[in-house]
Design goal:
The chain is built from 20 helices and nine strands. By secondary structure, the chain is of the alpha/beta class. It folds into two domains: 290 residues, Aldolase class I (TIM Barrel, Alpha-Beta Barrel); 67 residues. The structure holds S-adenosylmethionine (SAM).
Length: 473
């Protein structure tokens, strides 16, 4: 039975509740009165329930969809301004014992090169990432209890945080690894990870069991309840996501919001981020073999509907998407994007040899970080390398309450400008720097009060003239 507070997957992601939600959405997708009322409710910026949001997702009245897009754009502006947080993935290992039918790391794939970074290789990769300008990483790995132990991850995190090359430093390492125990989550928290990310892949249990036929990931309940265990282990920033293309997107959307509602109800804090990956071509994976691919229009609608349903939750888009698609959805709700990414185990320090490829999937946006930064600034976005919230202990409900009161803006805007300035000084191409300096000059005037504005201006001067780094609020 559906119960948002229950700790059992089948209760908080209840199949019957999702089916009823989809039927309710179908019945009401042309109900202009209800749709207007829901749009009005979303304007209060307190979010929508999975049932309400599902009606808006199902609605195909062009003029109402226009209103939904406009509102998403406005909410994005109100909560995140024109800042976009930058990050890069770092694949630690592609050893995997699971049988996921959509992922080339599946255990039966005998021709993909299997690799696990040594601590020395991690050093080289991290220095290469720091030399690009990255400060925030998402660590990635397959699931293999023999090769990819918790001890290995803890060592990697320690190595990553210890490397200081020139003015570089990784200031926040998020981690996307297989579901694990409360004790292990506690160890990850103690090691100083930022967000624990785990994609549900699909909320549809029957499909899930078919898509994950073998290995520990086959256990739907253990996977679905992972965020509860992570929170119990003290990790208060968790990142949700589904892999769009595996099952029907409307089912996934309802499941995703139910999961967010559950975390909020059970722990008093919803997800820190939601990722919106779409299935991609990869070594031995053909996305055309899967029936539920979604086109760019539906993808944009999904992003907009997530944005208005969970206004306080950051949204992440990776280089799975090309420049054009990213451009289309950025203003609809995305708050974090990756740049200059490699999905191979190693590959930042030097390209992988042709005969030993370990990539997880094909990247669509192959531009360098500097090109992505410049492109964002040309569209008047502020690329932000800020990690201050995490380092100042503003995580979980502390972060959410600052978000909900609107106060977070007072930190985010100045921090984005100062960390962008660091990037421009240390890593940008001359043309990128010129564009960035003009943008900062304009944006510093938008720092909310005069006292803060003066401090920011002074800090910007110190970054430029005294080569001082790491200012933050
Ligand atoms: N091993 C971890 C787990 O069990 O959840 C996940 C790490 S994996 C490196 C990160 C994510 O990549 C997966 O959760 C999946 O959603 C995504 N992924 C796998 N195959 C993909 C493909 N062919 N196209 C796009 N994304 C894919």
């Amino acid at each position: 039975m559906y119960d948002v507070n229950s700790r059992h997957a089948e209760d908080f992601i209840n199949h019957e509740e999702i089916l009823e939600t989809l039927a309710y959405a179908d019945e009401n997708k042309d109900n202009v009165g209800l749709i207007d009322a829901l749009i009005e409710k979303a304007k209060l910026r307190k979010g929508l329930s999975h049932r309400e949001a599902s009606v808006l997702l199902a609605c195909d009245i062009a003029e109402k969809n226009e209103e939904i897009f406009k509102l998403a754009e406005q909410i994005k502006k109100d909560f995140y301004g024109n800042r976009i947080v930058m990050f890069a993935p770092l694949y630690l290992s592609n050893y995997c014992v699971n049988g996921c039918t959509y992922c080339p790391y599946h255990a039966k794939n005998k021709h993909i090169a299997r690799k696990q970074l040594t601590q020395e290789e991690i050093r080289r990769e991290v220095i290469a990432l720091q030399d690009m300008g990255h400060k925030r990483l998402a660590l990635e790995a397959g699931e293999d209890p023999v090769h990819n132990t918790m001890e290995y991850y803890l060592k990697c995190i320690d190595t990553i945080y210890s490397i200081k090359h020139k003015n570089g430093a990784i200031r926040r390492a998020n981690i996307n690894i297989a579901a694990t125990t409360v004790d292990n989550y506690r160890l990850l928290k103690e090691a100083g990870i930022g967000t624990y990310i785990l994609f549900q892949e699909t909320y549809h249990k029957e499909s899930y069991l078919q898509l994950h036929p073998t290995g520990p990931k086959h256990d739907y309940d253990y996977h679905t309840e992972a965020m509860d265990r992570a929170m119990e282990g003290g990790i208060d920033d968790v990142g949700l996501g589904v892999l769009f293309g595996l099952d029907k997107y409307r089912y996934e959307f309802a499941g995703l919001l139910m999961h967010a509602e559950h975390l909020e109800a059970a722990f008093g804090v919803g997800p820190h981020t939601i990722s919106v990956p779409r299935l991609k071509r990869a070594d031995d994976i053909d996305p055309d073999q899967f029936d539920n691919g979604i086109d760019d229009d539906i993808f944009a609608k999904l992003v907009a509907c997530i944005r208005i349903s969970v206004p306080y939750t950051g949204m992440i888009i990776s280089t799975r998407e090309n420049q054009k698609t990213r451009e289309r959805v950025l203003h609809l709700g995305i708050s974090q994007i990756s740049g200059g990414s490699r999905t191979s185990v190693g590959g930042y320090y030097e390209p992988e040899p042709e005969d030993a490829k370990s990539e997880q999937f094909d990247i669509s946006d192959t531009r360098s970080l500097d090109e992505v930064v410049r492109w964002l600034m040309e569209m008047d976005y502020i690329p932000s390398f800020c990690t201050a919230c995490y380092r100042e202990g503003r995580t979980g409900d502390r972060f959410m309450s600052l978000c909900k009161s609107g106060q977070i803006q007072n930190c985010c805007h100045p921090n984005a400008l100062m960390t962008l300035k660091e990037y421009l000084m240390d890593y940008a191409a001359p043309e990128t720097k010129a564009i960035g300096d003009r943008l900062i000059e304009k944006e510093v005037l938008n720092v909310p009060n005069e006292k803060a504005r003066k401090i920011v201006m002074e800090n910007l001067r110190l970054i430029e003239e005294d080569n001082r780094r790491d200012f933050r609020f």
